[in-house]
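pinned: reference chain
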Amino acid sequence: MATEFTAFPREISGSSASRRLRLTAKVPGIVYGGEAKPEMIELDHNALWHGLKKEDFHSSILTMTVGAAKSQVLLRDVQYHPFKQLIQHIDFLRVEAHKPIQMKVPVHFVNQDISPAVKQASAIVNHVISDVEITCLPKDLPRFIEVDLQTLTAGGSIHASDVTLPTGVTLVFHGRNKDVVFATASLVAEEAAPAEGGAPAEVAASKQKAPAAAAAGAAGAKPAAKPPAKKK
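pinned: its structure tokens
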């Protein structure tokens, strides 16, 4: 279900007006796109701050209520204060059902623990990206893209073109088909293998040396000196 939020009409624009608005715990924003004119809005800062912590708020179609009107929008941009936990401005794009949209959605990795890379080789799995850019109609927009790691092996990788996509969804490539995830052999496993292989030989050698050393020590040992006799 689409995430819902409430916005309010904003009458005055400009940097001074926006600054005064932020002092009242409000965030200035704008809604654009479609056939309607851009609409200036304001939102409650605390409610928006908590909403932005949710993954769906960034990758789902949102239902925005302004007065009695409801519309479908996408989050397009958020501007934060350089060092304070404050939202400075927010942009939304109106969604039109018949027009494709292009946006980034999060990637969820599954079955990593049962992959041969982890279960058999104790490899280190590196998640190269956390989201992918896709294009689709609004009705086909997925909340996330799932990447199955069940067949990932040590030294192997999964490319963007290998990812199974929902119906109607296309990946957007920017010049190259990059890795989504790859697995590298664990250094601990590589170092442990020769050590374990050499241990029996070293133990056997030490056992062979031990009796010889004991015998040599016994042969070369001098008898203990007797204490001098007492004078009568």
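why pinned: The longest helix spans residues 187-219. Residues 195-205 have pLDDT under 50 and may be disordered.
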